[in-house]
Amino acid sequence: MFSIIQAAGWPIWPLLACSVVALALVIERFSSLRTARVAPPRLLDEVLTLTRSNLPGPDVVQKLAGNSALGQVLAAGLRSVIAEPRISEEALRQSLEGTGRVVLHRLERYLNALGTIATAAPLLGLLGTVVGMIEIFGAQAPGATGNPVQMAHGISIALYNTAFGLIVAIPALMFHRYFRGRVDGYALELEQAAERLVPHLMRFAVRAPA
């Protein structure tokens, strides 16, 4: 492996850095976008059952908010009704939507960086190809005998960097689209959960006299 890096020349180092960063981002996103940390399957039903007759206390709401991303959204709705018993349905929906946007932004963290690596890696490989071509042309200077060692080194730089750029870019693009699909799916789940929670919580809202 070290001999390949030596043959690829200095343009390989930015690609190596991109590969390390991309691997770290993929591992982090796999950990952060687990279903248990974002939208546990039974959490909404448990909250609806818990609040069937009355609203929970602050400790329970705080524990719910720290449970998962979905729990944070549900806790925002509970806090809004507890803090303002005369809350309107529109205000409750706005509270849930605001918290949902914050949660969604956190779920999308690092996805732009992964997409940037997927886009930049082939260009960095192309840069290595250009550097290798320059080495090849330098080995064939007019009026001088061609330098086969320099020519071989230029070919190595061009081919290794082109290949490594694609090796980094293709998996990064695949994982970027995979994680983007997961985030979109979670966003839909959060929206549906909020729609179920709103009419349930409005039963506890105190109606203002006409």
Task: Tell me about this structure.
This is MotA/TolQ/ExbB proton channel family protein. It is found in: Cell membrane; Membrane. InterPro entries: ExbB/TolQ_transport (IPR050790), MotA_ExbB_proton_chnl (IPR002898). With 210 residues, the protein is an all-alpha fold. The protein has one domain. The protein has nine helices and no strands. Helix 5 runs antiparallel to helix 6. The longest helix is centred in the last third of the chain and has 54 residues.
Topology record:
Layout: H1 2-8, H2 12-32, H3 35-38, H4 43-50, H5 58-65, H6 69-83, H7 89-107, H8 111-138, H9 148-201
Subcellular location: Cell membrane; Membrane
Membrane topology: Multi-pass membrane protein
Family: Belongs to the exbB/tolQ family.
Question: Which key phrases capture this entry?
Answer:
mainly alpha, 9 helices, 78% helix, transmembrane, membrane
Quick summary:
With 210 residues, this protein is mainly α. It has one domain (2-201). Helices cover 78% and strands 0% of the residues.
User: Tell me, what's the shape?
Assistant: rod-shaped
Helix content: over 70%
SSE order, as H and E?
Answer: HHHHHHHHH
Supply the number of helical segments. Answer: 9
| Poorly predicted ranges | none
Rg from Cα? 27 Å
How much of the sequence lies in strands comes to under 5%
**What's the overall average pLDDT, rounded?**
88
User: How far from one another are the termini?
Assistant: 78 Å
Number of domains: 1
Structural category: mainly alpha
The largest β sheet comes out as: none
Number of strands: 0
Protein name: MotA/TolQ/ExbB proton channel family protein
Organism: Aquincola tertiaricarbonis
Pfam families: MotA_ExbB (PF01618)
Subcellular location: Cell membrane; Membrane
